[in-house]
Amino acid sequence: MKRKIENKIFTILVLLLLLVSITSNTFVKAENESTIIFWGDNCPHCATLIDNVKQKNLDVKLHIDYKEIYLDGDNAELFEAIIKKCGISPYNAGVPLLYINSQCWVGGNEALWALERAAESVEDVFIENVSYPDNNENITINEPNDRSDIHLLTNVNNIVVLGAITLGIISAGLIIQEFLLNKSNK
Predict the structure, then answer these.
(1) pTM value surpassing 0.70
(2) C-alpha to C-alpha distance for 22 and 15, rounded to whole angstroms
(3) Using 50, 70 and 90 to split pLDDT, how confident is the model at 136?
(4) 19, 111, 140, 176: which is deepest, by most CB within 10 A?
(5) How far is Cα 112 from Cα 131, in angstroms, rounded to an integer?
């Protein structure tokens, strides 16, 4: 009986260690996740999207990686992995394609809309160093140029993993409690 409980405790501890390592990798991926515009050489819709992004200064407000997929094999492989992650069939995928906040937006208008919403939320939350002159005529807002440290940890995967860890900790506590109760009854 004692050996059986010790095996349960060992198994739970190994599972908790595994979950913690998975969680740390998940958070690193979420924090390093980029906003990517996939585009193709000589694609007119791609050129229009990129022009609009630059005209509206969205690339200043958001850190955007531009990945050309027709001529760059590594970018094409990344594109395939991203559309698979988003559940898009290769037959329905095309450029321009925006990948932001773990979502794919196919087409220039859709991508531009998503980028504008993301830029608005960044402006609302991260405006820093507002200074008001004495005469209130020229109000300046100094925003940080590097937005790479902005992480929205709303990723469902992180929530699921944290839930699994919580359940694992509760289970380990119950097993330890059972072990201690059995030990005290002897």
Answers:
(1) no
(2) 10
(3) very low
(4) 111
(5) 31
